[in-house]
Specification:
This protein is α/β, with parallel strands linked by helices. The chain contains 14 helices and 22 strands. Helix 1 links the parallel strand 1 and strand 2. The structure holds flavin-adenine dinucleotide. It holds the Pfam family Pyr_redox_dim.
């Protein structure tokens, strides 16, 4: 056997699995068909979108004035080419970083499409059709996901006028108007970017709320704040057509409950209706690897498919399509392959929406607890009552903590506010150790910090907050 592990795909799942396996002494190869490593996340997902979010936030901050802070500046001028240059350089630094880590850990990387020939054999097919076969004890499928499109609606995504997230992170000019089909995380993040830079953004969403799986109260407040920033929302609206026009593209939609259809036109339409597992060209059928009813590679509790020696992790398997979930699965699987006891706690996977303010959550929502018949108590604390938030003029939002009524164990934490994506981790650590809201409330928090709102919300679940 030439390798202990061959990983197909170098996204957060694949590259982390490869590095961890190499660190544990296994001989590892990675096969990647993209020109650079890092997968969707580093090339066209998490990283470029966050570079754009940061730059556009800075622009909007200065554009809307710093007068109240006593900082007088002129109107900012947008240089979109430079802004995109910032994004590209951040992506380059990250993908180069993965290439460096492969070298450092003596991981052999092969450029080409990986095709499974059966347990223990992976063909690497290069651009010119040349083929090389790698022999290995274990195969890891980490091929990620691709855009899903709108169920039942044929849409031609040209990445110029009708775009997916990949086109939306590379627009050459700020559109006057942008329609976002799908009010999930990606649509709202990229909608916010272009709205801040000057586009009039309209979101069309099938559900009666934005951010589908989020706690209802938090999602409602987030929508209110985004609407204040200028985003328009059409909820409970079913899109039935997206077509190009002379001036851009038009979207036809009708109320989900039934009723008259409407048409809206915009310079650009972003289709962000979700992602689907990517398994094309892998040869899974011939290799006998089973998929589930949603096209995901089926795995057992140890990431193994129905074919011994073939494993799968990340977006291509069940669970939230998040980079850190893929990474944690990569680490756990590498440990298992090295004879250890890798494990992922799916109950404690934080989710962050990088709008401004950010929305972050971990654990159960109020709706989930109600549906499961769990008796719970709620503690909330608004950032308007937090000194640091006032000092920074970021008083929008709140912390909401859900704890078991009997045991006080924290079951879910939801934060809408500046820096929510950082603050959520103290809740995640607490929940990982099965902590109670009293544990959280009795942990000394530095003053003045936004995180004091977490402590106060914890206090509110069983007694009273101090500053309210
Ligand atoms: P991927 O990152 O998709 O990597 C799979 C890799 O496999 C790709 O490079 C692909 O080229 C390669 N591949 C596929 N088939 C083959 C083959 N046969 N042979 C060789 N190579 C192959 N998640 C977050 O947690 N936080 C965020 O802020 C966030 N922002 C996002 C923003 C956007 C715009 C998008 C689109 C996604 C975002 N995500 C975010 C989701 C995140 O990108 C994914 O969850 C993550 O990339 C999944 O990692 P993965 O390793 O499973 O797959």
């Amino acid at each position: 056997m030439a390798y202990d592990v061959v990983v197909i795909g170098s996204g957060p799942g694949g590259y982390v699995a490869a590095i961890k396996a190499a660190q544990l002494g296994l001989k590892v190869a990675v096969v990647e068909k993209r020109a650079t490593y890092g997968g969707t996340c580093l090339n066209v997902g998490c990283i470029p979108s966050k570079a754009l979010l940061h730059a556009s936030e800075t622009f909007a901050h200065v554009n809307h004035g710093l007068d109240s802070l006593g900082v007088e500046v002129g109107k900012p001028v947008l240089n979109l080419e430079k802004l995109m240059g910032h994004k590209d350089s951040v992506v380059k630094a990250n993908v180069d970083g993965v290439a460096f880590l492969f070298k450092k850990n003596k991981i052999e990387a092969f450029r080409g499409t990986g095709k499974i020939l059966g347990a223990g054999k992976v063909a690497v097919i290069d651009d010119k059709g040349g083929e090389q076969v790698l022999e290995t004890k274990n195969i890891v499928i980490a091929t990620g996901s691709d855009i899903a499109g709108i169920p039942g609606v044929p849409v031609e995504i040209d990445e110029e006028v009708i775009v997916s997230s990949t086109g939306a992170i590379a627009l050459k000019k700020v559109p006057e108007t942008l329609i976002v089909v799908g009010g999930g995380v990606i649509g709202l993040e990229l909608g916010s970017v272009w709205s801040r830079l000057g586009a009039k953004v309209t979101v069309i969403e099938y559900l009666d709320k934005i951010l589908g799986g989020m706690d209802g109260e938090i999602s409602k407040q987030a929508q209110r704040l985004l609407a204040k920033q200028g985003l328009e929302f059409n909820l409970s609206a079913k899109v039935t057509g997206v077509e190009k026009t002379a001036k851009g593209a038009k979207v036809t939609f009708e109320p989900v409950a039934g009723g008259e259809a409407q048409t809206l036109e915009a310079e650009i339409v972003l289709v962000s209706t979700g992602r689907r597992p990517y398994t094309e060209g892998l040869g899974l059928e011939a290799a006998g690897v089973a998929l589930d009813d949603r096209g995901r590679v089926e795995i057992d509790g140890h990431f193994q498919t129905n074919v011994p020696g073939i494993y799968a992790i990340g977006d291509v398997v069940k669970g939230p399509m998040l980079a850190h979930k893929a990474e944690d699965e990569g680490v756990a699987l590498a440990e298992i392959l090295a004879g250890q006891h890798g494990h992922v706690n799916y109950e404690v996977i934080p989710g962050v929406v990088y709008t401004q303010p950010e929305v972050a959550s971990v654990g159960k929502t109020e709706e989930e607890l109600k549906a499961a018949g769990v008796a719970y108590k709620v503690g909330k604390f608004p950032f308007t009552a937090n000194g640091r938030a006032r000092a920074m003029e970021v008083t929008d939002g709140l912390v909401k903590i859900l704890a078991d009524k009997e045991t006080d164990r924290v079951l879910g934490v939801h934060i809408l506010g500046f820096g929510a994506g950082e603050m959520i981790h103290e809740a995640a650590v607490l929940m990982e150790f099965g902590g109670s809201s009293e544990d959280l409330a009795r942990t000394c928090h530095a003053h003045p910090t936004m995180s004091e709102a977490v402590k106060e919300a914890a206090l509110a679940t069983f007694f009273k907050p101090i500053h309210m």
